[in-house]
Amino acid sequence: MVMRKWRLVLCAASVLLVSGFMVSSPVLGADQETLDRLEKIIRQQQTQIEAQQKALNDLQQQVEALKGQTAKATVKAATDSPAAVKTGNPKASIKVYGQVNKAVLYSDDGHNEDLYLVDNDNSSTRIGLLGSINPNERYEIGTKIEVEYQTNPSNAVWQEDKRYTPNDRFEKRHLDLWVDANTLGKFSLGWGSTASDGIAEVDLSGTGVVGYSSVGDMAGGQRFYDSSTGGLSATAIGNAFSNMDGLGRDERIRYDSPSFNGFTGSTSYVSDGGGDFAVRYSARVDAFKLAAGAAYANPGSTSDTIDDQMSGSVSVLHDSGFNGTFAMGTRDHKSGRDDGGFFYTKFGYRGRWCPLGVTSLSADYGRYSDIAADGDDADTIGFQMVQDIQEWGTEAYLGYRLHKLDRNGADYDNINAFMTGMRVKF
């Protein structure tokens, strides 16, 4: 643009000079003064053009210098910034993920009130690595390494130990590898979820971070106070309530079938004997989102108390935000004990009431029978609220739960528990 401007100036100056020369040529020999004046004008214009050209060159050099500095700064920033993840295999991709979930827990056992600073065991603090290689479109080879570290777990702290940390170290959750063959299914090997893991915990309410069918995760270590003896009993909430959620995580080999019209079948074999199989279903029907699962599990020699068990759950979410969840299970005990059983139900609503994100509300009830001892009837009522803060990758939550245990020969007081905290994911 600058060069074009000066070309126009030079063109105009040339036209003026030529015009002036043509007009004055007839008297050129007679008017030496006019000739001298025109020569002076030409020299002045030439001087101005040279000055402008020098300024243009200087400006061009400054632009080039700035470009060089910007490029160097970009390279330095890229060099100084650590790479998110590097892998020794150029064909592999890797993802780092994790979360921190901390809360304040209040408990009243009918005789004492206590306040605890805890790690929320509903969804513990953890970190993991996901790796995958796709040698072709038909196969994926993957790995999962995930560990947790909990200080004062909410399901373990109790009246006489507010800093209960049974394993003050990282605990394994997944040390797993798999091969996904698409139309042939997925094969997994290592420490990870068995086929029945999570089968009793299907929940679309959005409030599972503070309350779901595993009701002991909030305050499971709290002992019931026995008014008949005037002291704490040996029975904790976690002993009296169980959602019979399959075989959990273990050293196993597992197979998952491809999905057929929303249905997926799974089976696994656990080290030292035992195994399970499960069926899951997921679909959208008009305005409803549906998820469900059921499983049979036999822990075999890995359990001294459980022979086998069946459990399952189903959850439905409507586009309006209303949702419902139901779970139930039964187990055969060894040593001639009565069979145990439970059912759990939850109703909730999810809506966007504020610019932060979705707000989820729910209320639940469950009865768990013959879990810790024959004749036990344990009841629970809970209320939950979770506020999603999308821009922060955070959920803030508040939960309340009442636990009641009826046992022959004992007079247990009810336990009330409140918990509030935040889960931050990355």
From TrEMBL:
Keywords: Coiled coil, Signal. One of its GO terms (molecular function) is porin activity. It comes from the Bacteria. The keyword RNA-binding does not apply. InterPro entries: Gram_neg_porin_domain, Porin_dom_sf. The keyword Signal applies. Residues 77-404 form the Porin domain. Residues 35-76 form a coiled coil. GO terms for cellular component: membrane. It holds the Pfam family Porin_4. Residues 1-29 form the signal peptide. This is Porin domain-containing protein.
